[in-house]
Write a structure and sequence with these properties.
Blueprint (H helix, E strand, L loop, with lengths): L7 H7 L5 E5 L6 H11 L5 E5 L3 H7 L4 H10 L8 E6 L7 H11 L2 E7 L2 H11 L4 E5 L5 H7 L17 H17 L3 H5 L3 H23 L6 H11 L8 H8 L3 H13 L3 E4 L15 E4 L2 H7 L4 H13 L5 E5 L5 E6 L3 E6 L4 H11 L6 E6 L9 E3 L5
Parallel strand pairs: 1-4, 1-5, 2-3, 3-4, 10-11, 11-12
Antiparallel strand pairs: 6-7, 8-9, 9-10
């Protein structure tokens, strides 16, 4: 049974557009499932799904005479004097594919839906050759709300006015699912696995596939050992400001190499860095970015995260889908963990107290924030402005 993702509404709307629909993100975030559902919902009668992990399909799509591709597809039953829907999965495996798509898009009435596991490849290659002909949709691991849907639990999304209204019965109903999200993240296979050992095995396989397939496809790295070492160093720095000099020293790599690897890891959806908001640059730290992983399960697998860092990383992933996320810090060290859309300030504490909210309100005056909250994991104290993390869904 198909379980709808939040992004699906926008994807389905784009079915009616002639532009190429591009789905990108880490492998195993559910891109193929989304594509097959889009195919089922498309009114175009002529449809074909093409898996480019199959060598015979890759051979066809590397043809230098693009009309040969059309001929082969015609022999498989398609008629190109009528609209056609073609879904191509894992396009990063065919380096010249953007040129093929450009020719076919401009020559025939074809609606393309394509997937790729690499933002780095897609954004660079597609920008060059498919300007104005495509729209990129980024597919992330499940949100907490989507996790609940996948687990068959009914719980609607809450806005900023509703989330602080703590309901004990709802907390009791959802807390085990939220702890699962904090511990194991949101990859669909991991969410649907029942045994902890199965979840851990799946996460290990996802990380291994990411390093050995996605990264090696993207770059000329031949020995991924140093990259894996850097990933482990980053995992224990979740929620902290990046210090490239220290990373360079601990990793035993050149600064430029570390910076290149960091860019690669961010462009390929393993990590995300967020900026500091700086309304008064002379008083604030304006350069350092804070680091988070885009899946809690992979972060915990790669490094020995503390309980607080794991919770903060989960909250970041929940906020990621609510707008632009930054942080705020003075040179004194006082900070607001997250600022959303430049007007909502949030402090993240496993066990929250009223004093945490007062700090956000005090610092928020410097940014003219309009809303202030404390996000907690354990609701031992309930007060105005407190949000239980599980209500951010």
């Amino acid at each position: 049974m198909y379980m709808e993702r939040v992004v699906y509404t926008d994807l389905k709307h784009h079915l009616d557009r002639p532009q190429i629909t591009v789905l990108t993100g880490m492998r195993r975030t559910g891109k193929t499932t989304l594509v097959k559902q889009l195919m089922a919902d498309s009114p175009i009668s002529q449809k074909m799904y093409i898996d480019l992990e199959r060598i015979d399909n890759r051979v066809l799509w590397t043809e230098t005479n693009y009309e040969t591709i059309v001929l082969a597809l015609t022999q498989r039953g398609l008629r190109f004097d009528q609209p056609v829907l073609l879904a191509l999965d894992e396009i990063q495996l065919v380096p010249n594919l953007p040129s093929v798509l450009k020719y076919l898009y401009d020559t025939y009435t074809i609606k393309f839906i394509v997937t790729g596991s690499s933002a780095y490849y897609l954004k660079n290659r597609f920008t060059e050759s498919l300007a104005g002909r495509k729209k990129i949709f980024e597919i992330y691991p499940l949100t907490f709300g989507e996790l609940l849907t996948f687990r068959g639990v009914t719980a609607r999304a809450l806005n900023w006015e509703e989330a602080p209204r703590f309901v004990q019965a709802e907390y009791e109903r959802l807390k085990s699912y939220y702890e699962d999200y904090i511990q194991f993240g949101g990859f669909p296979e991991v969410v649907l696995a029942d045994a902890i050992s199965d979840k851990q095995d799946l996460l290990s396989d996802i990380l291994s596939s990411y390093i050995n397939f996605d990264i090696l496809t993207l770059s000329d790295i031949r020995d991924p050992t140093n990259l894996y070492k850097l990933i482990k160093l980053l995992a224990v720095r979740v929620g902290t400001k990046l210090d490239i000099a220290k990373l360079t020293s601990f990793a035993g790599m050149a600064r430029q190499t570390v910076e290149n690897y960091m860019d690669l890891l961010e462009q390929s959806y393993l990590i995300r860095t967020i900026p500091v908001l700086a309304k008064s640059p002379d008083r604030e730290i304006v350069k350092a970015r804070k680091l988070y992983f885009l899946d809690n399960g992979l972060a915990a697998l790669a490094g020995d995260l503390g309980s607080g860092a794991r919770f903060e990383n989960a909250v970041f992933n929940q906020l990621l889908h609510r707008g632009a996320v930054a942080y705020y810090q003075l040179k004194s060290g006082r900070e607001i963990d997250f600022v959303v859309n430049q007007h909502i300030g949030l402090e993240v504490k496993e066990t929250a107290a009223e004093g945490d909210l007062r700090q956000v309100e005090s610092l928020g005056k410097n940014l003219a924030l309009t809303q202030h909250y404390v996000v907690g994991r354990h609701p031992l104290r309930i007060f105005e402005g407190f949000i239980w993390g599980g209500f951010l869904r």
